Amino acid sequence: MTYLDHAATTPMHPLAADALVAELGRVGNPSSVHEAGRAARRAVEESRELIADRLGAHPSEVLFTGGGTEADNLAVKGLFWARSGADSRRRRVLVSAVEHHAVLDAALWLGEREDAEPVLLPVDGAGRLDLSALEAELGNHADEVALLSVMWANNEVGTIQPIAEVVALAHAYDIPVHSDAVQAVGPLDVEFATSGLDAMSVSAHKLGGPVGVGALLLRRDVDVTAVQHGGGQERGVRSGTFATALIRSFAAAIDAAVAGRREQGGRVAALRDALAVAVLAEVPDAVVRGPAVPGSPLDAARLPGNLSITFPGCDTDALLYLLDSLGVQCSAGSACQAGVTRTSHVLLAMGLTEADARGTVRFSLGRSSTRADVDTVAGVIGDVVARARAAGSR
Ligand code: PLP
Questions:
Q1: Known catalytic residues?
Q2: Candidates 161, 180, 336, 362: which one to mutate for ligand 1, based on the most atoms within 8 Å of Cβ?
Q3: Domain end marker among 258, 288, 313
């Protein structure tokens, strides 16, 4: 099997799997005061300290959630409710047009149900936020803005956003900034404190941990209204019994991902570049999407494992089906859309035509990727594209 869908979910790191299995044998609710409860609580707090350390944060800033989607919803809705509650003029929710649906749909839902005004900020042809559009929006409406959310790195085309500039612009007007760093943590050097961000989302299963756990990193002085109520865990912002085993495994995964980042990043980027060269040699009219520089298929302002590529005249469903039948697993845009292939809002926001967006495939590489994966794709892609084109012209 040639698994090239690491951005959708990546295999668990052996150390994270070991930690998960070891913890599953434990009994004790970390909120109970007896010895078993206190021992479980220690496991949670040690994990919190490790995660905070590896992400350049204070342990009290790490709030565990059920994954990236929950962290994004808590940030967008919680910041909106806190800010608009304190000042009813603050109804504008600024998000980049290329956000994951966990941010985008949360902002649109606030518009439909809570009288918010979602504002989608444009990007350039490589998927990079248009900073002058952000500057203009802030210059005209700063008093009406509740929050700004701009992802650290894009899940479909791998574009890394200028987070430092975004934070500087928004903070000049005291506007809190959230970033979905789900795809960034692991491959990139992500430091919460130095980023200046107010809130940041992380998900374990994108970096070698288990599905079903993540975190919202939230500065102590930032007010967020709880979305979910109950036992008052996590500063009262996210109630729910601590998932001790998942949290322990998440910490082991972050530890391993950060320790191996430099070596893995270089290795994975080199494989990804080799894949781009091989695919372009077989299909010369294919077009690489996202940041690129002349002379090299891809550049540094992009996730090391991402290759987004348009095959003109093809339909993604046909491409994915043919590749899958040959054992090659990859995605059209984002896989996190409940199995429905919708035309990617990310590619459309970058200015692609509907037809080009519908012929775009995302290969994403990770820790278990090898040269053999590249060779397998190189060996089949020419024929697959020819068959997809023939199917489309019928
Ligand atoms: N944000 C981004 C950028 C993602 O790529 C994903 C998943 O693809 C999510 C959020 C959702 O994270 P989770 O699967 O942990 O809910």
A1: 336
A2: 336
A3: 258
